[in-house]
Amino acid sequence: MKNPRWSEELTRGLDADKARIKYGCAKGLHSVSEERAEWLYPQFDVFVRRLDRENKILQWGAALVLSQLARIDSDDKFTAIVDKHFSPIVGPVMITAANVIRGGARIAQAKPHLADRIAAEVVKAARACHQTPECCNVAIGHAILGLGDFFDLLNNPRPVLQFVLKQIENSRRATSRTAEQFVKRVQSRAENLPT
C-alpha cells in the first residue's frame, strides 16, 4: 500500500508550535511505525535529520521510529547511519541513550549483518558520561538487556561477554543482577568459545 498522505502530515506536525500537537504527532508516528512501517519508510531521511534536534523527546521518537523502519529497510539505508544513530550512547542524556539502546536490539534482529557493529556501539555504555554515575549504571543495565536480545546473532560475542562480566560488580544492584542473569543465560555458548 502506498504511503498515505496523513503520515506525511503527522511528520510535518512534529514542527508544530503547540506541544500537544507536536507530541501527539510523535506518538502517532511511533504507533504507525510499529504497525505499518512501510508508510513511513519514504520519510527515512526526515527521521535521520531529527536525531540532531535539540528537543530530546522528538529525538527519542525519531530513534524509535528508525528502529522500526530497519525491518523494512530494503535499500539498506541503516548501514550508513549506524554511527550517528548510536552516538547518544556515550551521553550526556541517559534517556536518549536508553531509547537508542532499546531500538538497537530491534535493528540487529532486522539486520543481522549489522549485529556485531551495533554491539560494538552498545558496549560503549561502559565509558559513557551521563548526568550522574547512577545514570551511567542505569544505561549499562539497558545495554546488557539490549545485548541479550541479539547475543545469538553475534559472530564475535567475546567483547560483549567481557563488557557484561565486568558489570557483575556494578555498584547498582539491579544492573549487577542483570549482568548475572545474562551470563547464566549465555553460559553454554560462552563455554564453547575458542580461547
Q: Radius of gyration, rounded? A: 17 Å
| Proportion in β-strands | under 5%
Largest sheet: none
Question: DSSP helix count?
Answer: 11
Structural class: mainly alpha
- How many individual β-strands? 0
> Helix amount, in percent?
55-70%
Distance from N terminus to C terminus (CA atoms, Å) equals 50 Å
Q: Average pLDDT, to the nearest integer?
A: 92
Shape: globular
Low-pLDDT runs: none
Strand and helix order: HHHHHHHHHHH
Tell me what the structure shows.
The model has no long low-confidence stretch (mean pLDDT 92). This protein starts with a helix and ends with a helix. With 195 residues, the chain is an all-alpha fold. The protein has a domain at 76-191. The protein is globular. It is built from eleven helices and no strands. The protein has helices at residues 5-13, 19-35, 37-40, 44-50, 56-69, 78-86, 94-110, 115-122, 133-148, 158-166, 173-191.
What's the topology here?
Layout: H1 5-13, H2 19-35, H3 37-40, H4 44-50, H5 56-69, H6 78-86, H7 94-110, H8 115-122, H9 133-148, H10 158-166, H11 173-191
Could you give a quick summary of the protein structure above?
With 195 residues, the chain is mostly helical. It has a domain of 116 residues.
Give the tags:
globular, 195 residues, 11 helices, mainly alpha, single chain
